[in-house]
Design goal:
By secondary structure, this protein is mainly α. Helices cover 71% and strands 0% of the residues. The chain starts with 13 loop residues before the first helix and ends with a helix.
Length: 207
């Protein structure tokens, strides 16, 4: 008699399962939000036992930490891609557009990255490193604009201001607080917002 084939939920490759779980978690995050994201629900979706899932992620906090880290890594990558061959103010414009478009394309992931799940400061090392990588790319862009070293205090101040402004703009749109007109491109929307910010500072300089 031939031996029974292993059940589909128990058949998995250990070295392959972690990225499969992460990909499934990202899809589930966009579908149902973070509150219903659990390792047991995830194992059901992937078709493996809960024990197999826990072999790769000790708990839910570790899972969402890796998911958020993936988001910051991708954010760093889009900042690099959009920065190529840009000079002067176009560097900041390009970075703002890349950031805004990433947030709009991945709303649930973006909210998780900056959400209350990590408000207590307890983050896995991978998430801390990924956050620093993304902010480091922004600092590099600002440093090139200002002609200063990336770790200069002036660079950090400008980078924090730029990050805060673009993050606020993206969050207001994602939460529906700020209306995004139909037919408007991300590029046009960001350009209008940056123009408004420039006008604000110019008005403040007038006697």
């Amino acid at each position: 008699m031939k031996p029974h084939a292993p059940r589909s939920r128990d058949a998995y490759h250990v070295g392959n399962l972690a990225p499969q779980l992460l990909a499934a978690a990202r899809a589930m995050l966009e579908e149902v939000g973070p509150t219903k994201l659990s390792l047991r629900a995830l194992s059901e979706r992937v078709g493996v036992s809960a024990t197999a899932a826990y072999h790769h992620y000790a708990n839910r906090a570790e899972l969402i930490g890796h998911l958020a880290a993936q988001g910051f890594i991708e954010l760093a990558q889009v900042l690099v891609q959009h920065d190529q061959q840009q000079v002067g103010r176009q560097k900041l414009r390009s970075a703002s557009l890349a950031y805004f478009s990433f947030a709009r394309a991945n709303p649930a992931l973006y909210q998780l990255m900056f959400g209350a799940e990590f408000a207590n400061g307890q983050m896995i090392p991978e998430l801390i490193a990924a956050r620093e990588q993304a902010f480091g790319e922004l600092q590099r862009i600002i440093a090139q604009m200002l002609g200063l070293a990336p770790q200069a205090p002036e660079v950090r101040r400008v980078a924090l201001a730029g990050w805060s402004y673009t993050h606020g703009l993206a969050s207001l749109v994602i939460h529906g607080v700020l209306h995004f007109p139909a037919g408007t491109s991300d590029e046009r929307f960001v350009d209008n917002a940056l123009q408004g910010l420039l006008q604000l500072f110019e008005a403040g300089e007038k006697p």
